[in-house]
Amino acid sequence: MSLISIKIKEAGYEPGETKIQNLEFSIHKGELIGLIGANGAGKSTTIKSILGYIPFLEGDIRLKEGIATAYLPERPVFYDELTLQEHIHFIAAVEELPEEIVKARVTPLLEKFKLTNHLHELPGTYSKGMQQKAMIILALMIKPDLLIIDEPFMGLDPIATKLLLDLILEESQRGVGILMCTHVLDTAEKVCDRFVLIDHGQQLALGTLEKFREICERPDGSLFECFHHLIEGKNHE
Q1: Contact indicator for 30, 173 with CB cutoff of 8 Å
Q2: What's the predicted TM-score (pTM) here?
Q3: What CATH number labels 2-68+146-235?
């Protein structure tokens, strides 16, 4: 059974101004789906539609009852007056997580991302990379069943990128369904089970890399090559 089923006939920010249309896919337990497309293709609008942030949506988004969802945005968002420790306490209170569970989950993440000594600082004073790491910790501390990630590698150095990839794969192996929006196609090719390709607000292709290769008639094509073949073929129609 899928954790979430997405059917979007059309969606947008203003009445009559459709940004995305005719999208249909699902995310299953333990599945990592790559949401790919050029800038302005509609990836972020798709994510916001799934999260319920888009005011005008015609379609059906069904979330499995009782599952926890976490969202890791492209641009880190924090409360200006709260330290990282206070953010952790706030989320723990909202999610009704016991202190011992929070400590067991958060401590190793703080150590991995070298933020233990910055717990009592305001995230607004962090570097961009540190802010991204803090957002990762806050997203993963609730042990979500469904994780939605928007451009997770922005601002991360190679070491932190490797750590995040390892965590994403660990979460997937734990059974978490993951939707990851990314421009980093070579990385997506290595870790994603399936891909949703969006172009000009519409779903252009859905499936595994093998399926994309079949559509493109490129048996050994990379995701990068298939991506450009599909986009260029659509634009030349």
Answers
A1: yes
A2: 0.94
A3: 3.40.50.300
Cα 194 from Cα 28, distance rounded (Å): 11
What single DSSP character describes residue 64? P
Distance between CA 173 and CA 31 in Å, rounded?
A: 9
Helical spans, DSSP H, in the chain: 43-51, 84-95, 99-112, 128-140, 158-173, 185-191, 209-216, 223-235
Q: Which of 116, 113, 105 is nearest to 143 (CA)?
A: 105
DSSP state, 183?
S
Q: For the chain, give every domain's residue range.
A: 2-68+146-235, 78-143
> How do residues 188-215 score in pLDDT, each as one tens digit?
999 999 999 999 999 999 999 999 999 9
How far apart are alpha carbons 92 and 110 in whole angstroms?
16
How far is the CA of 186 from the CAs of 48, 173, 182, 215, 220, in angstroms? Answer: 25, 21, 10, 19, 14
